[in-house]
Design a protein that fits this description.
Helix content is 45%, strand content 17%. By secondary structure, the protein is α/β, with parallel strands linked by helices. The protein has one domain (2-138): Ribose 5-phosphate Isomerase B, Chain: A, CATH 3.40.1400.10. It has a 5-stranded parallel β-sheet, with helices on both faces. The protein is globular, with a radius of gyration of 14 Å. The chain binds D-ribose. D-ribose binds next to α3. D-ribose (RB5) binds next to α3.
Length: 141
């Protein structure tokens, strides 16, 4: 599996830790930035990650900003992107099983790092359940 990961300055430090966590799990990572805590605009990084997922270059994406809200709004403007803003492991799991979320959004200023890594781990390993959930996703396109 290959995951595109991006953040703004509000999510930069969590992005760095998430990239290491994914690498330790053996997941291939493409880090699209940002690369410091210098202030940047989150839509740019949402666009980069979503483009990697839309093209098929990456299987899924992870976006981190201060609250996760800006990234989720920006990501969900992209066709075929289903971005889920998650604050704990249950919604992360359900976002995969029921919604086939292909982008995970996190808030670096509202989550502890252990909770954030727990969410990432569950989200990475959970598969889409299909069936009636696919019918509902078809209604969104
Ligand atoms: C940046 O200060 C902050 O607005 C951003 O990281 C994010 O929380 C936006 O939704």
């Amino acid at each position: 599996m290959k995951i595109a990961v991006g953040s703004d300055h509000g999510g930069f430090e969590y992005k760095e830790q998430i990239v290491r966590f994914l690498a330790d799990l053996g997941v291939e990572v493409e880090d699209v930035g940002c690369h410091s805590t210098e202030s940047v605009d989150y839509p740019r990084f949402a666009d980069l990650v979503c483009a990697r997922v839309q093209s098929g270059a990456c299987d899924r994406g992870i976006l981190i900003c201060g609250t996760g809200i800006g990234m989720s709004i920006a990501a969900n403007r992209h066709r075929d992107i289903r971005a889920a803003l998650c604050h704990e492991a249950y919604t992360a799991r359900m976002s995969r099983e029921h919604n086939n979320a292909n982008v995970l959004c996190l808030g670096g200023r509202v989550l502890g790092i252990e909770v954030a890594l727990d969410i990432v781990g569950v989200w990475i390993e959970t598969e889409f359940a299909g069936g009636r959930h696919q019918r509902r996703l078809d209604m969104l396109s």
